[in-house]
Design a protein that fits this description.
two-stranded antiparallel ribbon; M1 Pyruvate Kinase, Domain 3; eight-stranded mixed sheet; 215 residues
Length: 215
C-alpha cells in the first residue's frame, strides 16, 4: 500500500451555468515532501467549508485502481493524478476492505478513516458531465476522507501502514451501499447508526432512516 501522488489546489473561480462558482476540486501533483496539518495539507485549501474540510474531512484519498474503470467508462476524458479532487492517490486500498475508524501511518503522519466521499455538483463541473454525480455514487468508487490524528510529513512513494483496524468492521463500502440503495438492510442500519467512529452527522442521518423504518 503506497501513496503514488500527493495533490493539492487552491480555490478558483469557474463559470458554471451562467454563474461564477468557487471550487477547489482542480488539483495537481506536488513534488517533494508535504506537510500534513490538522485541517489539510500544505498547498491545499477547501472552498465551501459548509460541506468540505474540517477535522473529519482534512484529507481525501482515492484509489488509483479506480482510474482504469473511469477510463473505460468515459474514454473521451483525461484522468491525470488528482482528477477526482483527491489529496492522496494510492494503491492497495479500496472501499470494500477499509473500515470506518481504521488508522494508518503514512510518512511521519497518522490518519483515521472517517467517511466516504459523497459527490456534489463540483464533480459535475470538473468533468463537465451532468450525469457524473449519479455515475460516481452508483459505481461505489467514492474514495474516503481521513482525519489527521498526528501531524507530520508525507512524500509520494511513502508506504501506507495499518496501525489499527476498527473493531466494528464496517467498511466504507457498507456505508456507501446503505446510503445509496440498501434501505432494507436493517441489521447494517442499526450497526452504522451506532458506529462511534463515524461522524455524528452521518449517524444522525442513519438513525432517522432507522426510526422511519421502524414506524
Amino acid at each position: 500500500m503506497n501513496v503514488i501522488s500527493i495533490n493539492a489546489g487552491l480555490p478558483r473561480n469557474v463559470e458554471w451555468r451562467g454563474q461564477i462558482v468557487q471550487t477547489s476540486i482542480f488539483k495537481d501533483p506536488i513534488a517533494g515532501t508535504v506537510k500534513v496539518r490538522r485541517l489539510n495539507i500544505d498547498g491545499d485549501r477547501q472552498s465551501d467549508l459548509t460541506v468540505h474540510g474540517g477535522v473529519d474531512k482534512a484529507v481525501y484519498l482515492y484509489p488509483f485502481e479506480h482510474y482504469a474503470f473511469w477510463q473505460r467508462e468515459l474514454p473521451s476524458l483525461e484522468f491525470p493524478m488528482g482528477a477526482f479532487g483527491e489529496n492522496f492517490t494510492t494503491t492497495g486500498l479500496d472501499e470494500g476492505s477499509i473500515h470506518i475508524g481504521d488508522r494508518f501511518r503514512i510518512g511521519s503522519a497518522e490518519f483515521a478513516v472517517t467517511q466516504p466521499r459523497m459527490p456534489c455538483y463540483k464533480l459535475t463541473i470538473r468533468f463537465n458531465r451532468p450525469d457524473m454525480i449519479k455515475r460516481f455514487l452508483q459505481s461505489g468508487r467514492t474514495g474516503f476522507y481521513l482525519a489527521v490524528t498526528r501531524e507530520g510529513e508525507v512524500t509520494a512513494g511513502d508506504a501506507i501502514t495499518l496501525i489499527a483496524s476498527d473493531p466494528d468492521a464496517v467498511t466504507v463500502a457498507d456505508v456507501v451501499s446503505l446510503y445509496a440503495s440498501d434501505a432494507d438492510n436493517q441489521e447494517l442500519l442499526r450497526r452504522v447508526s451506532g458506529l462511534a467512529s463515524l461522524p455524528e452527522s452521518w449517524r444522525d442521518y442513519f438513525r432517522k432512516r432507522l426510526w422511519q423504518a421502524d414506524e
